């Protein structure tokens, strides 16, 4: 990394107790600890952050973290997405970069997070509002799955668009294009996050239900960083079983 003033970097883990597909998933047992506690401790263990917080609307989750010696913040009001929840929490904090760590992804990959943060020390850092991760998709079923958000970038790895549809459309399958899945871990400049919080949702975000489209619609620059680590997001009981098996390895 280039030498410059150290940035103050914190991790925020937005955590809702209610979940449509798997209610209470963050309080499920994962080898003797809850999912949310494992995620919090994994974020701390990376040693990449000045502070790590869980930000939640749930008294149960708040007590789980604080009761085990961690840092947690109670949301003051209801929020539609994790970015809004985090923005409210950091508004009065002295911080440069805020990393959104998903509460249902306890198997955090330190190397991928390190790559993400390096974006803010590179030569074009001043023009980057936020950075996020992507990983290649090979299986046709995965490419066509609307639950996998796809991203396309320009030659400098700046995001052009995110979609639940396969993008680009393979009209000519001989071009050797690679499809990429967006992994929902973000590193925001604080101001970009506050701008997101204050700006209304526009039509693309409302249509696709992909919150990072709001940044693109308002002209923000999103740098995408490739990783080979797929991660395990716990959205179903089956995902929880997979995470248990991976922890045993």
TrEMBL record:
Molecular function terms, GO-annotated: 3-deoxy-manno-octulosonate cytidylyltransferase activity
Documented EC number(s): 2.7.7.38
Domain of life: Bacteria
Function: Activates KDO (a required 8-carbon sugar) for incorporation into bacterial lipopolysaccharide in Gram-negative bacteria.
Annotated protein name in UniProt: 3-deoxy-manno-octulosonate cytidylyltransferase
Catalysed transformations (reactions): 3-deoxy-alpha-D-manno-oct-2-ulosonate + CTP = CMP-3-deoxy-beta-D-manno-octulosonate + diphosphate
Similarity annotation: Belongs to the KdsB family.
Keywords, comma-separated and alphabetical: Cytoplasm, Lipopolysaccharide biosynthesis, Nucleotidyltransferase, Transferase
Keyword Nucleotidyltransferase: yes
Entries under Pfam families matching the protein: CTP_transf_3
Localization per record: Cytoplasm
EC class of the enzyme, as a word: transferase
Primary location recorded for the protein, binned into one broad class: cytoplasm
InterPro entries: Cytidylyl_trans, KdsB, Nucleotide-diphossugar_trans
The protein's annotated pathway: Nucleotide-sugar biosynthesis; CMP-3-deoxy-D-manno-octulosonate biosynthesis; CMP-3-deoxy-D-manno-octulosonate from 3-deoxy-D-manno-octulosonate and CTP: step 1/1
């Amino acid at each position: 990394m280039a030498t410059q003033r150290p940035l103050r970097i914190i991790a925020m883990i937005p955590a809702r107790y209610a979940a449509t597909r798997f209610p209470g998933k963050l309080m499920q047992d994962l080898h003797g600890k809850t999912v949310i506690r494992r995620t919090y401790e994994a974020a701390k263990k990376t040693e990449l952050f000045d502070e790590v917080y869980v930000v939640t609307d749930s008294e149960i989750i708040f007590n789980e973290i604080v009761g085990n010696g961690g840092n947690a913040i109670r949301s003051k009001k209801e929020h539609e997405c994790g970015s809004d929840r985090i923005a409210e929490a950091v508004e009065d904090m002295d911080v440069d970069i805020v990393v959104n760590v998903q509460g249902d992804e306890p198997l955090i990959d330190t190397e991928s997070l390190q790559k993400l943060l390096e974006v803010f020390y590179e030569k074009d850092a001043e023009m980057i509002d936020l950075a996020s991760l992507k990983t290649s998709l090979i299986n046709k079923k995965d490419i066509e799955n609307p639950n996998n958000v796809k991203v396309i970038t320009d030659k400098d790895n700046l995001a052009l668009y995110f979609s639940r549809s396969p993008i680009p459309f393979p009209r000519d399958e001989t071009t050797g294009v690679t499809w990429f899945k967006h992994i929902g871990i973000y590193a925001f400049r604080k101001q970009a996050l506050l701008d997101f919080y204050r700006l209304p949702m526009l039509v693309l975000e409302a249509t696709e239900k992909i919150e990072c489209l709001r940044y693109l619609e308002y002209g923000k620059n999103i740098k995408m960083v490739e990783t080979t680590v797929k991660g395990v997001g716990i959205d179903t009981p089956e995902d929880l079983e997979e995470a248990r098996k991976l922890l045993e390895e």
